[in-house]
Design brief:
- It is built from twelve helices and no strands.
- Helices cover 75% and strands 0% of the residues.
- It is globular.
- It is mainly alpha-helical.
- The protein has one domain.
Length: 290
């Protein structure tokens, strides 16, 4: 589990800050979907994306508002929560980049191998030529530096951790853990409702979507807890939302393949981490050569 505060964080933050963050997150989400992702503001953002070759996406700009208001103002400024204590640890960035890139490459290589096994030559996905490299990178960047970063920070890095600490004051650790996990990720699911209604006002399939969001939230929470690296959760969250296909393959299989690779990562992470830790300890015990 990620490192917690040495002092009691509930005494410094507590329910008032949790309530403030929840209200600010809900309010900013409603505002972004009601104003930013609708004309005429959306038209201006689309023009900005065109002017930058697709590098600056509406998702990136739309996520900047809650990143500033919820994370910057509520958590950092008002709550005075150190970045490290919600998972913003600089030393974890490089490992997260390697893990995220490794999973992306593995999935693309698997699809290419399947095509070769079927006697077909792998082809570059047409989106790279049709939309351009900057557009594709802009879509992924909008997730990494925007939406995925925001959601992992608020719902996994802050909300789950704070609820766990607060629930432990009156419940056993296991019960507190389950309560914190379910409630934090249920709010993660519910906060997507404004966006889903924007896309589909009839709310077709909303219940199933909420269940899938709850499950995905628990999956990303598991990534954070097992790897103790929020940036890995951010990277994998970004890939799940924007698979960024390199080779032309079954579009419907990309997302499940990335989820499957994420589950495999969770299975092997701790054994590999223990082996690396044991090797480092063994190396440290070796006598120095003179």
């Amino acid at each position: 589990m990620p490192e917690s505060r040495s002092s009691n964080p509930a005494a410094r933050t507590g329910w008032p800050l949790v309530a403030l963050v929840v209200i600010a997150a809900a309010s900013s989400t409603i505002a972004v979907n009601a104003v930013v992702f609708r004309p005429p503001v959306l038209n201006q953002l689309q023009a900005l994306r065109a002017a930058t070759g697709g590098l600056v996406s509406p998702t990136l700009i739309g996520s900047a508002i809650p990143l500033v208001s919820v994370v910057g103002i509520c958590i950092f400024l008002i709550g005075r929560v150190p970045p490290r204590e919600i998972g913003w640890v600089r030393s974890g960035i490089l490992p997260a980049c390697l893990v995220t890139f490794g999973i992306w490459v593995s999935v693309q290589a698997a699809f290419a191998a399947i095509q070769l096994a079927g006697g077909n030559q792998p082809q570059l996905h047409p989106v790279w030529e049709r939309r351009g490299v900057l557009f594709v990178l802009g879509e992924l960047g909008g997730q990494i530096f925007g939406n995925a970063l925001l959601e992992e920070t608020v719902f996994r890095g802050f909300l789950f951790t704070q609820l766990l600490i607060l629930f432990q004051e009156f419940a056993p650790r296991r019960s507190a853990f389950l309560l914190a996990a379910i409630l934090s990720q249920a709010f993660f699911a519910v906060i997507h409702i404004p966006n889903r209604l924007l896309v589909d006002p009839a709310a077709t399939g909303l219940v199933l979507d909420q269940v899938l969001l709850l499950v995905s939230g628990l999956l990303f929470l598991a990534v954070y807890l097992i790897t103790a690296n929020l940036w890995i959760a951010v990277g994998l969250h970004a890939l799940v939302n924007t698979p960024t296909p390199l080779v032309q393959a079954g579009e419907d299989l990309l997302n499940p393949a990335i989820v499957g690779a994420t589950l495999f990562l969770l299975l092997v992470w701790r054994p590999l981490a223990n082996r690396v830790r044991a090797r480092r300890c063994k190396t440290a015990e070796l006598p120095e050569r003179v």
